[in-house]
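Record format v2
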Amino acid sequence: MEENSTLRMTPLIQEHKELGAKLAPFGGWLMPIQYSGILQEHLWTRKNAGLFDICHMGEFIVQADLSKCNFSSLFTIDLEHMPQGCCRYGFMLNQRGGIIDDLVVYRIGQSQWMVVTNAATTDKDHAHMRAILKGEFKLENVSAVLGKLDLQGKVSAKVLVSLIGEEILKLDYYTFDYFTVLGEKIIVSRTGYTGELGYELYMPNQRIVELWHKILEDKSVLPIGLGARDTLRLEMGYGLYGQDMCEETTPLEARAEHFICWDKEFIGKSALLEQKEKADYRKLVCFIADSRRSPRHNYRIFYQHQDIGQVTSGSFAPSLNFGIGMGYVEKEIAAGDQISLVDNSLLINAKIVAKPFYKFGSAKTKEIRNVYSG
Amino acid sequence: MSIVDSLFYTKDHEWAKIEGENATIGITDFAQGALGDITFIDLPKVGALLSQSKFCATVESVKAASDVYAPLSGEVLKVNTQLSTQPELVNLSAYDQGWFAIIKISDIAEKDKLMTASQYKVYVQELSK
């Protein structure tokens, strides 16, 4: 356990304490795990809207003309054909094809980008980018001054219409723009980690507390901790860096090939092509237990009495009322196959399923008005 | 956080309500609060023989699975089957509707190893410091 004294804190730490949050270390930060309780917070976010303090995550602003530097080689994402106002999820890889981080790149200008990284990996990512980048570029780590609040849930658009105006409704899934919020011109993107219609608001740290309180004035919004953030993402089958992927796993193993642009050069590409050709690699699978009993991190996965792998994420799924999880298996296995999840004398029966576990997420809806007024 | 006067307590936050030859057992309000939302409980079988301080049940919350230890030795006479579909009863009512099992006490002298309510109260206050 990390000592609390060495942990970093977001500008909202006092707000969390006043709300009676349970605080715990996460990625080197002291973060709110829950306020009222994970189940209630989870279900509230699916039904209404939840506000998450995500100030711990990393942000980099990069000036990079793709023809004058090798910025593009850092990512599996097709930066060249990405329009301004779009953001894309993808990976930064090492030479072996292992995942240094999963991240989102925003194209804020023809030659201007924002890279949003995981909290625990921010310094590592910064060092990697600095080591690799050659040519004309400017790389700035703005993590310490730029905060982020995630507003997620079907009602989030309605809340932002009150705060920002109708123009927020023009944002499609994985696009962003600058909007005036509390007098500041800030980036708001239609993105998130819950599977619900939702937005991420990038506000300078000194205005974060004010924005937090302003959004919570709307009674359809509750503060949500990292506990429910974890169950919400797991129900969607989204991986968590450091748990479901790391530098020893590749995007092919993580079943994320659709986030790789093969028509460009990037670090780790030759290793991935080699792995793809051999085609004998382990794969990430999703499974659902036959009861409320939940698989947990590090349980073994058995198929036909054979140990074939290990659970990387597991939890009770509040929207489904079953235990769910994901893990890597060394064997070809298909949806519907029966497996067992084993920890010493404990055995949980489960079956392989396609993701997402939760099928009713509103994240990609094109009918925002129907979603939020319904 | 509530502590009921007439019960006996363990350092692992289980309680026992002793009534003649039998005892009802469960986990304390402090324990349920620390665990958070309880999502699954694996209870001992009727007829099982429990040993004091030894594993007797598993409680799962959203985040983790935790072992529960028997506050007293004895044979399980009855278990709270309602917990299989409503494990949240332990969060809502740890000393009443959230009971785990009723056992036939095999050695009443073991009671001396348990804390009284006032002792448990001091113990929990120390932990919370």
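The first strand of chain A starts at residue 22 and ends at 26.
The helical segments of chain A are 13-18, 38-47, 122-132, 156-163, 205-216, 226-236, 269-278, 368-373.
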